[in-house]
Amino acid sequence: MELCRMQSFSKAAKNMEVSQPALSLQIQKLEEEFGYLLVDRNTKPISITAEGALFLEKAQQIIQLMNDLDQLSVELEDEVAGQIRIGIIPTLSPYLVPLVMELASSRYPDLKVEVVEMVTESILSELNYNTIDAGIISTPIRSSGQYAFAPLFYERFYLYVAENHPLYQHSLIQVGEVPSEELWYLTEGNCFQNQVNAVCSIPPFDTVKGNFRYISNSIESLKRIVETQGGITFIPELATLSVSTEYEDLIKRFKSPEPYRELSVVYLKNTGMKKLVRAFVELIQETVPRRMLEKPSNTPLDTKM
């Protein structure tokens, strides 16, 4: 599996802490045993053959079943103890994790939770390789049938507006009033930015008035730009909870129907949501503001994924 992930014998061997010749020999022995090639060594990077892809799928299922047997004792016990690894998208984790950390430590002192920031594609991939137990992503997404999704909460979008901007004087903002040429953006391909584009798409740079455009991977960076340089940007609801009193007036709500995103836990359908993951999910729903647990009547923004 590591060879499939890295598409390189040398990189996979390094990650597995074995020599490259040893890894190559192991793959060769498997190929000889089963009578077909698993890896196409003539491509750069190397690729998995059609037979290799089927072999990998079956191997993943076997490994998952073995992992499930290891988890069986945990599932049968009343105590919440053990270790889980969860991937969370970067536009959510900086705001969600600090909220739930303290409660998780006090409620379940024997539960170890490792949170890793990952984009949606990586979360789905790592689930397949059993390197994470679950992910928290924005939904809905277009995916194959091996994944299951359970909605966690619903997060409204807000506009963050500089004091010198005309929209600063508005208490509520109509979606159609947002000037796209004055927005600071997240990097394209980010599901949050894809959802922003559904509200207000990015215009070509040569058509805007300004001579500077800043596109960032961080919502916090965009907030600092608004505070110091002016302009506007979109921020998710949990990000508003950490805004200092000095800048609270920069937060502007949209008129109804307010744009929002749906956040869900994703896991492999054939394994179900593990007990320790369920415990962590319950902590999240207990921690976020109660209003965020109720699904708005309008449709969530499309992730374009």
TrEMBL record:
Q: Quick check: keyword DNA-binding in the entry?
A: yes
| Record-annotated HTH lysR-type domain positions | 1-49
Gene Ontology terms: cellular component = protein-DNA complex
Record's keyword annotation contains Transcription: yes
* Alphabetized PANTHER family for the sequence: HYDROGEN PEROXIDE-INDUCIBLE GENES ACTIVATOR, TRANSCRIPTIONAL DUAL REGULATOR HCAR-RELATED
The family line of this record is: Belongs to the LysR transcriptional regulatory family.
Designated name of the protein = LysR family transcriptional regulator, hydrogen peroxide-inducible genes activator
Instruction: Name the source organism.
Output: Sunxiuqinia elliptica
